[in-house]
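Hey, quick one: can you model this chain's 3D structure?
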Amino acid sequence: MDPNTPEQLAAALVALLDVEEIDTDLYRGARQPGGVGRVFGGQVIAQALQAAQRSVEGAKTAHSLHAYFMRPGDEQRPIVFRVVRDFEGRSFATRRVIATQSGAPILNLAASFQLPEEGLAHQDAMPDVAPPEALRSDHELRAAQADEIPEKWRRHLLRARPIEIRPVAPRSWANPEPAEPRQASWFRLAAPIGDDSAMHRAILAYASDMTLLGTSMLPHGVNWTTDTMQTASLDHALWFHEPFRADDWLLYATDSPWSGHARGFNRGSIFAQDGRLVASVAQEGLIRRRS
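Sure thing. Here's the predicted structure for all 291 residues.
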């Protein structure tokens, strides 16, 4: 069976994020099959969120998470997640998750959970952009630029992925030009999955680490493939506002109000196609220019 069909790609991501319980409040996250080098930050966040979600009973659902990256993860090893149950109230609960490899922490995550309730409501309007049906996928755009992509990045950038992304204003990977620190992309899981809302939140957490850090590099005409750049996520915060499905189209609108001192600060708003603001994101990352 072709492992690159949309259905197989989606199933593989679900399997990757379906952490294994190995003891009370202790979980193991699988390694990305065929992965090499550094673990994608969104994977560690999503698996840590899944571990936290598995420890919460009843109707409380995750509404926010805050994570700090400490060390790069190794694709050759699984990740162990230890959950600490800091608080269990009637309306809210909090969990801490420590992700480790070879006995050393690579990420600390705190997550908060709340019983659903009604309240005062308002939101920002969704940006007026072209619909996903009118746009080409990132995979198609990269394939068209394949000859321009440096050889060392070509296989990585051209591989089939479980998250389909359709940028509103495509840019060149090989020859980035300075631009306003603002961009937008539609994204969704490559194929439909079941109705497990916890898994949909984990998939959104995974995808929220995509396209975000690059926003702070737009004014400088560089990206993470630029030879002189060293990049990495330093922290990541995510708030879930409204119900959504990760296998439906979602619009990720990002901006970067500041960069300096080898760091870039980025913000993101995630909208459903019906205009609902379903999640917000903030991240600071390393964007160090090396000589």
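One thing worth noting: The radius of gyration is 19 Å.
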